[in-house]
Design a protein that fits this description.
about 375 residues; six-stranded antiparallel β-sheet; elongated; five-stranded antiparallel β-sheet; alpha+beta; 6 helices
Length: about 375
């Protein structure tokens, strides 16, 4: 430090200036520190708020992740349950399909059985038109009771039959013992020119046959008619019908009773005398005067009953069914070869009374008389 007062004063003033500048600088730094503290406090508050938001967001995210995990687990369980249920439904579906196929097979068997039973027990008779001659008269009391009817009895006999399929043949021997010998064989080797085939013999069971009586009574006084037009009131139409059927000029006669149904145009006429109904029934037509001539259809009135119904079943003793026949040649030639083979005693055969072979793709019904083939068609 200088000893000169002026220099000393100058230095002091310089120190004062420096002190003032330092204080100003200090205040500036204090303001900066305070501002920094305030900013730090604000940032700490923001950080705290941000931390809280972060914690909330993390909590929400964790909750979402937990929820997603639960939903994923539930979805996986649901998918697994659906897959198990689908597998179960597939098994049930397969079981139902198998059951359906079984039922179809059973249904087909039942249908085949039903068809077979219908063929066995169905009565179908084609009775040709024949002139009937009555050789025995009625007793007096029977004639009194049945004077209004012509009574007759017909016996219908169904011949036993068998449905022959393609590749089969029926052979009837003259002797029963020959058929028994053939049936003991497991197979028969039949030579057809340069070829051989094994034919299998089977015992034969015929479809049941029936026999019954048809008792018919045909009225000698009453006829039926139809196609009477409903053009007139019912009572007036009835009167017109009775007048028309009463006229001998039209082929009628005295009417005892007339029935008429307007809804379907049918009815019945009973005459006093016999003979009129028969003549009209033979004609089949009658002209009715309803103001204009109208032709109606005329039919006989009859009643019938089936009596003494009997069924028969069994097996023919002299006939054998041959199966497994191959179509190696013409139908007639093959049938001749079969007949030649089974006629030879060396083949355990004998005299053949009848034989019928059916080639593949065809069928026919064989009818039997006693125990031999009578007809096949």
């Amino acid at each position: 430090m200088s000893d000169n007062p002026e220099d000393l004063n100058g230095e002091l003033r310089s120190l004062d200036d420096e002190m003032i500048a330092a204080e100003a600088e200090l205040l500036k730094y204090k303001d900066l520190i305070e501002s920094a503290d305030n900013e730090r406090s604000r940032l700490l508050l923001e950080k705290a708020e941000a931390d809280n938001e972060k914690k909330k967001a993390e909590a929400e995210l964790q909750a979402l992740m937990d929820s997603e995990e639960k939903l994923t687990d539930q979805c996986n369980r649901d998918v697994q349950e659906v897959q198990e249920e689908m597998k179960s439904l597939d098994r049930v579906c397969q079981d139902l399909k198998r059951e359906r196929d079984d039922f179809r097979k059973k249904l087909q068997l039942k249908r085949d059985e039903s068809d077979s039973l219908q063929r066995k027990f169905k009565i179908q008779a084609h009775i040709p038109v024949k002139t009937v001659k009555f050789t025995r008269g009625l007793e007096a009391e029977e004639a009194d009771e049945r004077e209004d009817f012509v009574a007759s009895v017909f016996t219908v006999t169904q011949r036993p039959s068998f449905r022959l399929k393609g590749g089969q043949a029926l052979i009837t021997f003259e002797e029963e013992k020959v058929a028994e010998q053939i049936l003991r064989l497991a197979k028969c080797s039949v030579t057809c020119d340069k070829s051989k085939m094994d034919v299998k013999p089977y015992s034969l069971t015929l479809d049941p046959s029936v026999k019954f009586e048809v008792h018919i009574k045909v009225s000698k006084k009453t006829i039926k008619f139809r196609n009477a037009p409903p053009t007139l009131p019912e009572e007036r139409m009835r009167d017109r019908l009775e007048l028309s059927f009463s006229r001998a000029s039209r082929g009628g006669g005295e009417v005892e009773k007339l029935e008429y149904n307007k809804s379907n145009g049918t009815g019945r006429v009973t005459f006093v005398n016999t003979g009129v109904a028969e003549n009209l029934a033979l004609r089949g037509k009658f002209c009715v005067d309803t103001g204009s001539d109208v032709v109606v259809d005329v039919f006989p009135v009859y009643d019938y009953q089936l009596k003494k119904f009997q069924t028969y079943s069994g097996a023919p003793n002299r006939t054998v069914l041959l199966g497994g026949i191959q179509g190696l040649m013409d139908e007639e030639d093959l049938q001749d070869h079969l007949e030649i083979h089974f006629q030879k005693p060396s083949n355990y055969g004998g005299e053949v009374e009848n034989i019928k072979y059916v080639p593949d793709g065809k069928e026919l019904t064989a009818f039997f008389s006693e125990d031999g083939i009578e007809k096949a068609n």
